[in-house]
User: Fold this.
Amino acid sequence: MSFIKNLEKVFQENSNPEDAVAMENYMKNHFSFYGIKTENRRLIFKTIWKEHQKEVAEKARNIAKELFSKSQRELHYCGIEILMKELKKKYQKEDISLIEFLIVTNSWWDSVDVIAKYLLGEYLIQFPDETEKVIEKFSNSENMWLNRSAILFQLGYKQKTDADLLFALCQKHSDSNEFFIRKAIGWALREYAKTNPSAVIRFVETNNLKPLSEKEALKNIV
Assistant:
């Protein structure tokens, strides 16, 4: 794909080994980096994308999957951002397989959280009848990142949040010793508290959450 080859070429030309080391350390050395800071990466990415607009629009799904097969983390970010734009309100039902693939591939909080909110969340807005099936599968999975995505997918739903589902998922995973699950519970509840603080307070008071989850949930409630 000429878009990907061009993107890799320009990213390599703009790589910064010193910054790459710092980024890799921040991400616990799970990934390689070119060392391109976010603002500059997005500027380069936007330019290359514009030059290959037709190719990206026609092959967005395949391009995203190929980008996720690469080593450098910046390319993974680009894959997600392509899908956020190209698939918005244009999802197909079978795209849930792609979303699941992205969640479980090269998994870490920085990719999973964006996918959960902006891909999974948007997909289920378009196909609400799929919510029960998808979220049951993800929340029952042995993959922790799918569990986290199920808890977080309603971030940004505000008044459209299915509170019963949110609370049920938080309760279901409340005994988890996984840091990223405990943190997700707190984050999801804290976000919903911006819309319905009294409901979140009641939930926290009547459920035995882990200290981190409870602290995060009530952080911004006065």
